[in-house]
Amino acid sequence: MKLLIKNCRLFDKEGEEIINDILIQDNVILEISEKIDEPDADMIDVKRRYVLPGLIDMHCNICEPGYDYKEDILSVSKSAVKGGFTSICCLPGTSPVIDNKTVVDYILRRSNETSMVNIFPYGSMTKGCKGEEIAEIGDMYKAGIVAVSDGDRCVQDAGLMRSILMYSKMFGIPVISFCEDISLSGNGVMNQGGASTMMGLCGIPREAEEVMAARNILLSKYTDARLHIPLVSTKGTVELIRVAKSAGLRISCDTAPRYFTLTEDAVLSFNTLAKTRPPLRTQEDADAIIEGLADGTIDAIVSGHTPETFESKNVEFDRASYGISTVETAFTLSYTALVKGGFMTMPKLVKCMAEAPSSLLGLKNKGDIKPGADADLIVVNVNDGYVINAADFESKAKYSPYEGRTVTANVILTIVGGVVAFLEES
Question: I need a labelling partner for 185 at 20 to 30 A (CA). Which of 21, 22, 32, 90 fits?
Answer without folding.
Answer: 90
